[in-house]
Amino acid sequence: MEINQIILRQIKMDLLHPFTTSVGTEEDKDIILVEVKSKSGLSGWGESVSITRPIYNEETVQTNWHMMNDHLIPLLYREPLSHPDEVSERFKEIRGNYNAKAAIEGAIWDLYAKEQNISLAKALGGVKDKIPVGVSVGIQESEAKMLKQIEGYLNQGYKRVKVKIRPGWDIEILKMIRQEYPTIQLMADANCAYTLRDTDRLKALDEFGLTMIEQPLDHDDIIDHSKLQAELSTPICLDESIKGVEDARKAIELGSCKIINLKVGRVGGLTESKKIHELCVKHDIPMWCGGMLEAGIGRAHNIAITSLSNFIYPGDTAPSSHYWKQDIIKPEVQMKDGYISVPESPGIGYEPDLKRIEELTLLSRTY
Ligand code: MG
Hints:
alpha/beta; Enolase-like, domain 1; TIM Barrel; 4-stranded antiparallel sheet; binds magnesium ion
């Protein structure tokens, strides 16, 4: 793979609807796009999932820009690459900064797949031609508003509903949803809003037949989750705590979770994602793909990784129109009967809309 140019662009996009979790509300999104050009004239694209404040993990758009500019891109240019699997190995000397690493590595994977003339899904070992889609419902001003939203989403065909919870917006809410919809695939995401002192409160959720409860305890905890899982019949799914295959191994060994939410950006890229997938297959731990309010390029990467066999549960990979008035790819990501087709064309399978990207660009830098 001969890279002869890298372009970083920071764009800003307005979300169609504000999205509230236990840690805050997002109304728009600043996004770093990575374009890696080869001597053959092909371009690979990646997208960082970081937001402007360090409330999901410690990274931000600004720290990503710094890491990419001052550390990661110089490492990439140090010597030629023959395969995208080498990128994460090369980035290993830089601690953490997984979102920044994943965005660059994702662009190299897209470029590699295009050079091989195969889809990114195929390059990663994907086996599915379509993936089931779930929807994530943020915390709302009122219960009535939330029920109305859920009704709309179910009518659109979503295969599973995930609601964001926090202490006080949990038991009553889930009870209400269950009364209305006794059989839907329902789960709750706490985004770290509880501690072991809330064990009784969390045990009370067992009666709602949730597919899983996601990340109830601290963002870097694995040990307390194992104590909690022993008390709950609802499977715990870990999100924030799993930053790589070693965290996954420890969580599985300790019994801290029964399901893993994979986010490519959180674990440093697609190569690490493949390793986690392999480990989870070995231990019979089902997975699904989480979302970080991605624009089209990040969304396309999520679709490709979700095509691997062990992504059992529907992911947070809703179509473009769920988030944006106009996405940055053509065609936009579309859902039919609750499924998204996995593209077969080379690379991510969606064309970046350069005109749209240009309109949204706040700053850019070329190497
Ligand atoms: Mg989550």
